[in-house]
Amino acid sequence: MALDKTLIAGLPAFAGCDDDALDAVLVQARSSHVAKDTEVFAQDGEAKFFFLLLSGHIRVVRTSPEGDQVIARYINAGELFGIAITMGRSTYPASAIAAVDCVVLSWPNSVWPDLQSRVPAFEANTYKTIGNRLQETQARVVEISTQQVEQRIAHTLLRLVKQSGRKTADGIEIAFPITRQDIAEMTGTTLHTVSRLLSAWEDQGIVRGGRQKVLVTDAHALMLVAENRRKNSDR
Amino acid sequence: MALDKTLIAGLPAFAGCDDDALDAVLVQARSSHVAKDTEVFAQDGEAKFFFLLLSGHIRVVRTSPEGDQVIARYINAGELFGIAITMGRSTYPASAIAAVDCVVLSWPNSVWPDLQSRVPAFEANTYKTIGNRLQETQARVVEISTQQVEQRIAHTLLRLVKQSGRKTADGIEIAFPITRQDIAEMTGTTLHTVSRLLSAWEDQGIVRGGRQKVLVTDAHALMLVAENRRKNSDR
DNA sequence: CGCGTGCTTGAAATACATCAACGATAGTGG
DNA sequence: CCACTATCGTTGATGTATTTCAAGCACGCG
Fold first, then answer.
1. What is the pLDDT of residues A114-138, one digit of tens each?
2. Matching CATH topology for B5-144 and B148-234?
3. Would you write out chain B's pLDDT as a tens digit for each of its 235 residues?
4. Which terminus of chain A faces fewer neighbouring Cβ atoms within 10 Å, N or C?
5. Cyclic nucleotide-binding domain: which residues (chains A, B) (predicted)?
6. Could you give the 3-state DSSP secondary structure of residue A36?
7. Which helix (H) or strand (E) holds A17?
């Protein structure tokens, strides 16, 4: 059964593509369901496909030779991922794990050259995506190198809430389950330190925690923390 | 006067380009000299050109809103840099400063679409470059997040020596002037810590320091440090 | 020769990790 | 439906790697 182009029309990845282009892209794609906590692909595995997330949230994890894990990013619905091929790589540089049940489109790498020539807008958007990720990653290096843990966690939380926030009666909450350990792996610290800081912020009415849940109740106050601009009396 | 294609033939950036392609690329380029400690372009400045380093060494520096500096990378002869345009950016994300006197080729951004269509190999190689930098940057995030300062500095030194090493009678030395402060800005630490560790390594006969100079005399021992595999008695 | 820039090295301070123990939550299976 | 268990979270006490503060030194350029 053919996939309907309304699935992907309007996504940034296909900005500027006309209907024919969308059809050309879709006819080569295959959609599949990925259960929570299941790998879409594994680090160092042969990169046979590239992907688009239709719904859900995916965690991209790099494991160091020593076995330490770092979360490179979270993928939101509408984003491309596993696009190693477009950078001339033959293996995936990280693992991708479904944070919740997901639906993904996948293309075999072999169709990339064809798509590239037939749908230039898609090609350009893909490179833009990579460029953005390079920017973000370099910004992260600056952050880790120059700021202390408290600011890093605050920034990370603000980013998560901005990119994947869900409005609730009491504030904005991160739209997928996330543990203290996950936050630690995004910020280069330990779950203990994350837990302590979240508890402190909870006392100050900035956030509200929960098992695999973070709800930001006072985004403005959190911004002040991120920029280290609170008065000492606030602590 | 036209530039000679022997200048750039054989560079990885032009792998697979035939003579006509090289001419097409070169005829649009302009070469210029950049004095030591001079900026090639400035962070947040409008990205009007992209560049290729013909000779010398260039330091790419990102400055955070708070004024902290981080060295994103060093560019060696033969590498492309300032390629913001290819990622859909209109400003440079970092500054580029000549670490020594340099010779660079530059192209106005406006020729990119033309080059892209007429020299596909050049285009593909450019994207490969960006992909490699994304990989490296992500690896750096993992390193900063999981390893301690000593290992990070050791790794960084090994990388510098590998990419820009110059063989001497007593070992391999970094081929351009680099201060302790520079090394600190590459590893997310302070010049004091760098200085202390280099001094300690000098006592152990692993490196030899000097004003704006580092000479690695025992790369193997430095590797053991990088992997934290020394016996305690070594310290 | 003097001055700026880079380097060294001690002593004190601290942010954060580590160690350790316990408490809470949610899913599972009887 | 409730007990069981795995996973996740909290929080105190202790330890330490690294920064910060401070001072003096050395190299090389004009």
1. 888 888 888 888 989 999 999 999 9
2. yes
3. 568 888 888 888 888 888 888 888 999 999 999 999 999 999 999 999 999 999 999 999 999 999 999 999 999 999 999 998 888 899 999 999 999 999 999 999 999 988 888 888 888 889 899 999 999 999 999 999 999 999 999 999 999 999 999 999 999 999 999 999 999 999 999 999 999 999 999 999 999 999 999 999 999 999 999 999 876 555 5
4. N
5. 13-106
6. coil
7. none
Query: Which of B30, B34, B8 is closest to B108 using CA atoms?
Result: B30
| Helix/strand/coil percentages in chain A, nearest 5 | 45, 25, 30
**Backbone phi, then psi, for A33, in 5-degree steps?**
-100, 140
Question: What residues does each domain of chain A span?
Answer: 5-144, 147-234
By CB neighbour count within 10 A (0-12 exposed, 13-18 middle, 19+ buried), where does B119 fall? buried
Whole-structure pTM value = 0.94
> Around Cβ A117, how many Cβ atoms within 10 Å?
10
- Among residues B22, B38, B27, B9, the alpha carbon closest in space to that of B107 is found at B27
Cβ of B141 within 8 Å of Cβ of A142? The answer is no
Task: State the helix-helix crossing angle for B120-146 and A120-146, rounded to 10 degrees.
Answer: 30
Q: Residue B109 corresponds to which tokens in the numbers above? A: 């951004």
B62: closest CA among A150, A136, A228? A136
Superfamily name with CATH number, domain B148-234: Jelly Rolls (2.60.120.10)
The residue in chain B having the minimum alpha-carbon distance to the alpha carbon of residue A69 is B142
CA dist., res. B40 & res. B150, Å (int): 32
Biggest alpha carbon–alpha carbon distance for chain A: 63
For A43 and D25, how far is CA from C1' in angstroms?
A: 50
CB B112 within 8 A of CB B155: no
Terminal C-alpha separation, chain A: 59
Superfamily in which the B5-144 domain is placed by CATH = Jelly Rolls (2.60.120.10)
- Domain A147-234 indexed as CATH 2.40.30.20: no
CA distance B189 to B195: 11
Bridge partner residues of B53 (DSSP) = B104
A134–B133: do the CB atoms touch at under 8 Å? yes
Q: Do A124 and B88 touch (CB under 8 A)?
A: yes
C-beta of residue B72 within 8 angstroms of C-beta of residue B84: no
The structure tokens listed for A57 are 């949230």
Please report, as a single letter, which amino acid is at residue A2: A
